[in-house]
């Protein structure tokens, strides 16, 4: 928690917010500084002995305990050993007030890590030596800030989130009055969020009093408008009786005295070229306590006594633009010690809550155009763990810890090869040494097996020359060497191998090729397990045991398979001669997910990821840290409401240039390391050994295990197949919700490709034939459409299920559904969790609001339909009355229709957002689902009304000639012409989606006014990078819904076109396929280069879009039947009714038959879930046994004559030696 720019009000040009003024320099006068420091300490002691007394009238307002504290502070310094402490509640109020008032460093209230101690040379004075090695930071950072900053950027992570505040003292800001009721409302609705894990209600009451008391210290707003000034005077005169209130009188007296001192301080700072010194902490405490007790602002008290007081909204002069003498450059300096306007007060309060309550590290700087103030937030790992457990975040176990045995090779019946009778037959085990006696050891194989990778090919060639008995004997011998290592690994992972005592029944023999590869597998496993065992004393190796075991098994299977393929390159040979449990199921290994809980440091239970270019590993990906950071902020602030009220401009997550584009962040961090502001972490011997193991094992690791390729490189276009996307990597960077969108887009494009060939054939036949052949192909293509839509939806649900299992999204979201900060309700006790202050909104009120929203939506949709029909009626009337006036007949109705459509689009966009806010949804998902449903219904009606009228209502408007084409009156051909136009326009729309952000960025760069004379300092590159991120386009649909809603909308509208009217234009499937391929590339480029990094969020499904597609597929049955019967001319007019019924019945049968035979949950998914449940139970049982063993072994070592400690040692020896060792218990 560090506030570099605002912590010290006396900072001048080199020290303030401006990104050009921060300089650090090494002291050159060490002895002189030591003497000056001693003199300054003596001066402070003398000043503290002469503290000014507080008038007795004011003292009477302070409670008794605080009175004693103030009296005690007025005693000499040597009598303060018996200082009376404030109560916990009072101390918290005092701390919060000092931070909001900018009278204390936020870092002082955190557990900053101590500075590394350096070796001292005792030939030099220790005090002088300390001054020699430390940086002169007194004009830049406080001691607490410096201590914390040392480790903040050592992981090369710049930050998770950035809040963008308006600069109150920017010259173009417009001031306005702010009264105390507005201030109270702002705090209550936007700064006082009472959520689980947030600030308790009692503390919010204290914070409210501090906030309103600080508000009363702000600079008064001076009205310049004469009319408003007269109204203000009238209100002051009518409220004259309130001036007799003691609180009001005390406030006036205090404020006048405070303002006089404040004005003198500002004038002195601007007049002199010397910084003002901050008052001693004891004096600050007195002033804050006096301020808080002069003004009694309890929750239930009336604020009317201050109703005539208006404070400045902005331009309070907290920051001052000071020009150089030659007027060529300027810098922002902080002339006020406390906030002087409402925007500054809000910003300081937000920073205080985030630093003190949410435990963020905060850093601020002003933008290069002076318009905004950026606050960069960075989470602390300890608090990330706490919040992840509090939010019940789904985290993945390390597969090597939870289910390592699923990675060993097995046969087609899933039996492990190490337990096969080929290796365990007792008779052959006795004879095996006979086959090894004649073997001559190759001296090259005497080398240390650490170089087995380079020797593997040579060894495999030798194995191929062995006879069958010799091969079996060598496998048996190596298995005997391998068994103790497997037993040791099982003990370390708390795996019970007692079930393996059973002999395999109906053991089937395997081919020689399998055992040749298995022998290489044994050599790999023995070598790497021994290397891990030798380094196991290092805590870093032990903490990563599960991960190392997983890498070893993957390496031991992967390399023999590659050798086998190299020596047996044939289509008729198996690609995987050694296959584990997952390979047999055709799946990549998936570790189980569980709600996160904090474990012991070296447990290694949770999967870890490489999170930086320096190789730092963490159990939380950067994406997950951003997700937790945003959820944490939501527990303390209603940030979306603050954006709506323009107290905050926006917030956004920071891109990681290394993970995104492979650009190193070292140039940004190096200046901080060079000046010792950041400690460059040196790797320990254990880390070096661990890295050596990683180097030889990482080639068989999963993508997320090591951050080897950047996202840009992985997202390169591939021709075969062109819809290929790195879904895993996109999920790891952008989150599950965006990852699921790209999975849907990829799967949708893939499924379109399956029907494209048939669509092209049908299009060619229908266009170039007539009669029965044409009619038959129309019916055939309709059957294909109905079957494909049902197949697509069913298989997408299966894909969605596998996505949920792969990324732990079985629940709606982590820790349940996410509550909206804007939700308003009454505080009640929760019936589920017994939480005493859970917000509740009555169901009947919610249902009434939903009914009202539905009614308004229905009215608007009815108006849209009526307007379209009205335009057609108008056009029909004009044709009949003015047949020769082409302008009046054609242009006027078309113009009216275009204007009406755009007008209703504009109206409904605003109405739908307001209706959604009015409905007061408690959860974000329900809010988004409701908005999706409203928006899509309107879009559907607005988009398809013309096509529906052409297809089915042509006879109602005969004069319009809606179906008139070059071939005469042909509704089927007219519908096709409309579809051709629509799909060509939709294809052309994909390019502007990419070009528009480029144009906006270019215009913004040209029009932005930037100070070109920035002074170089250590944070320059970091700040420039953050500001460049702020200039990108946000990825949002509205204030509470991200941009995915618009992307899904385009795809589902396209799906509706294909299903409802694609029969008229089969080639539309090919155009849609090309459009989607282009959309994949556009979306990739947009998210990577032109869009702010979206806030990652969880997603188990595609929300209401799945329901909408089901409805569209259902409606397509009736629509396609209608097109065949009424529009295409396939059925004669005299039998249309009966034919329509037959087609509907047949199509419904096709649709539901596909749904019946295709299960939405794959059989593999059920197997994986069952396996995961077994693995989780085994891990939890191992932990329980560990705890039980601890209590039995330590607290009950000698009970009932049994030596439990010795018994535990024998049990461990039994596990290490194998199942044939007998355990003896002896009574003492």
Automatic annotation (TrEMBL):
Record field: transmembrane: 776-794, 850-874, 886-911, 931-953, 1051-1074, 1102-1126, 1138-1158
Region (Disordered): 1-74
Superkingdom per UniProt: Eukaryota
Subcellular location: Membrane
GO molecular function: chloride channel activity
UniProt keyword terms in alphabetical order: Membrane, Transmembrane, Transmembrane helix
Compositionally biased region (Low complexity): 41-50
InterPro entries (alphabetical): Anoctamin, Anoctamin_TM
Predominant location: membrane
Comp. bias (Polar residues): 54-74
Ranges of residues in domain Anoctamin transmembrane: 730-1171
PANTHER family: ANOCTAMIN (PTHR12308)
The name this protein goes by in its record: Anoctamin transmembrane domain-containing protein
Organism for this UniProt entry: Paramecium pentaurelia
